[in-house]
Amino acid sequence: MDFVFKNKRITGILTILPQKVVTFEEEMGNYSFSTAKSMKLKLAMGYKEHRIAGPGQCSSDFCIHGLQYLFDSGLLDRDSIDVLLFVSQSPDYYMPPTSNIIQGHFGLKHDMLCLDINQGCAGFEIGLIEAFMLLEQPSINRVILLNADVLSPKVSDRDRNSKPLIGDAASITIVDKSDDDSVIHANVKMDGTGAFALNIPAGGFRLPSSPQTAVIEEDSAGNFRSKDNLVMQGDNVFNFVQREVPPMIDHLLTQSDITKEDVDWYMFHQPNKFMLHKLADKIGVPYDKMPANIVENFGNASGVTVPTNISYNLGESVVTGSRKVCMAGFGVGLTWSSILMDLGYMKFNKMINF
Fold first, then answer.
1. How far apart are CA 206 and CA 143, in angstroms?
2. Bridge partners of 176?
3. Non-local CB neighbours of 201 within 8 Å, separated by 6+ positions
4. Which domains occur in the chain, in start order?
5. Angle between helices 273-283 and 234-256 (to 10 degrees)
6. Is the pTM here over 0.90, yes or no?
7. Phi (first) and psi of residue 92, to 5 degrees
8. Is it the case that residue 67 has pLDDT exceeding 80?
9. Residue 46 pLDDT class (50, 70, 90 cuts)
């Protein structure tokens, strides 16, 4: 499904990272593999360290800390917010919506929309598409897109398949109406037949958590996890990404009538360095245009990897100037989405710790 927008722009991005840093070597002893095999995995995947939320820290805590920082810094006027859009797969509660909790914490105006969206790896792109659509309404001038995931508690400490790459983080993106008539192209695709390639089997209404679902079992690859833990079918996810993402990007560029060389940066979701380099090869993009350093420095925080990528790798370059950026997310759902737009002359593009 294709989308075209005008008169919309991103005016600020703030990434909020946990203070706690855990290195690959600190966790290596938990896995049923030799040191040599683990270090080989570290080198291939680009593992070094990841950021993990502290005890009791939830998604809303990171968003609230970030919003308070923006209010206190004068970077965001609380009365200017018309929509709080919260995208996550780790909400604070089944109910109420986390966006309402955040609105209530600050006592924001009642004349606004609070909306939660359950999306993960492609959540930033889907959140932006939703923000752009909402901004078509005359009564909406500013959308605050909150992406947050605190999934580390759901990953088994003895799962070498997932534990080294998972990180926690949040981001706040300010999306405004604009007089700039540059075109934004976007697309999204979904395939629910592959939904269980990434899933947490227990904990919902289909299979509530119980002492039975907490029993740790060993899989055929030597990983230990329970039904309460995240399960990732790594081969299936890798094949899906290599098969579906390159034609999506080709289609996006065709729709935009530009070449691959016209794009300054490819800011993609970052499952690991190996997968991204293979994807860059398949698309035909040089590695230096598609950064692959987020997992090694911060971990994979689902949809938050793209704004983290922008904050970390582009920094002030999109505050003092403008860049043509292709963003893409792909994974849980299965869902894949991409956006091509100009990022430039933003009010801020920062990273903070919490």
1. 34
2. 9, 142
3. 207, 213, 227, 228, 231
4. 1-354 (3.40.47.10)
5. 40
6. yes
7. -65, -40
8. yes
9. confident
